[in-house]
Description:
Layout: H1 4-51, H2 61-68, H3 75-92
Helix pairs in contact: 1-3
Amino acid sequence: MHYGKMGALLLLGALPIAAIAQNVMQAAPAAEKSEAREKYRAACSADVQKFCANVERAKGAMRSCLAAHEKELSAPCKAARDERAAARGKDKS
Length: 93
């Protein structure tokens, strides 16, 4: 295939557009995750203070603490945890 100079320029001009489009597509899921995380934190903040105030927030310790108190959690926190777990499961598939 012979593009010539003009065809080559058009082809090279399309590459940055493709890269920008890919970055935008990757940013959307990151924004959704951030939004879901904030919703989860807001819904569970009172439960965290009540049941897990002295738990270090690293390496899944907070998640484990909330899971240990699952039956005692508020309805909004339970719903947010379920929603976040479903989203994580969707990401892994």
